[in-house]
Amino acid sequence: MSLSKRILVLILVILGVWIALVLELRSSGHHIGEGICKAKEIFNCEAVTSSKWSQIFGVKLSTLGLFYYLFLFFICFCSFFGRLFFVDKLKNVLSLFVLISSVLSLYYFIISKFVIGALCPFCIMLYVLSLVLLVVVFYGNSVSDFIKSVKDGLRFLITLPVKFFNKNSFKENGFSLITIILSLVAACSLTITLPPMLYVKKEIPVELSQFQKHQRLDKFTEISEGLERDFSIGPEDAPIQLVEFSDIECPYCRRMFFAIDELLEKFEGKIHFVYKNYPLDSKCNDGIPAGGHEYACYAAELARCAGEQDMFWDVLEYLFSEDFPRNIKVEEGQKLIINSIIELGLDREKINSCLSSKRQLQKIKQDIIEGDALELMATPTIWVNGSKVKNPTIESLNKIFKFLLE
User: What is the value of pTM for the model shown?
Assistant: First the structure.
């Protein structure tokens, strides 16, 4: 592989690291690139990254993508310091990886477009990048040479453990072996440590003047009693009126739920918190394409049914605390969930009766209509005293609450 081609590949790989990192940060709850994800109607990053197709054996595809491009970065970088023999090995390994990556990219594009019904622009960037890398690596080779290179790359990786412990093979392949092993270790380490390092809880500047003291929430409908009541905590005349639209299956909503719980304890008696449902699930939310969250509507309905037995908050906390079942049929997962929450002390017959009647579903749909009217773009979305909080964190909410109580 020529020097110029190696430089081009390295540049493309660095671009891949950046895009994969953005995806990984988004899947962790960061709102980076929100404008791109909402640029067109077909784009819906949340629906794609939260679908059942976004994981393999419980590992997020964004995490695997970041690991893949970091690994390629290290072996490409090391190629500038290796002998011609190593560069040859690199070409073979690279040919194998870019071919697999391109096939998987086409597969997931088809899944995203025709099964999920939505596209993630950052995912598309990675799909295109995989195909571009394939073209660059293939360029200047015949089909037979490329196939041979792929086979040699596969053979090299399969025999890697044997060669590492074989003295004769190690003398010949030592630099290649050590480089690939160290690249794997480095890529794995950075995949684990890099996103948390970048996703620091920075204090987001908050324009406090937009939050009015002692302001009622006229833009929201709050029903305090009856079957379709809103579940709330705290005195209705509290100086802080907090409304959250949330999705029980949303990872960022989970963190926000426990953050708000901490703030409710800290500012006890000063907050009136109203919880509203906005499941990113096509089963009850017509604005979400097929392939969104699998359990969000069911979980919302289950929590509200538990509310009929005065256990809404207990069940909500439990659902936010536990991971939803994966890699099994949704119906089987629902049975596992309901069996678990029954252990909290709920009456199974009453819960089943509520779920069968669908009587709580109407209120969930009313919340969704209300959220759409407020131009809800993501979950969680939070309003304090009638003003929307941009990119809410426990730090920004704490700052707002202190300002309102001054």
Answer: 0.59
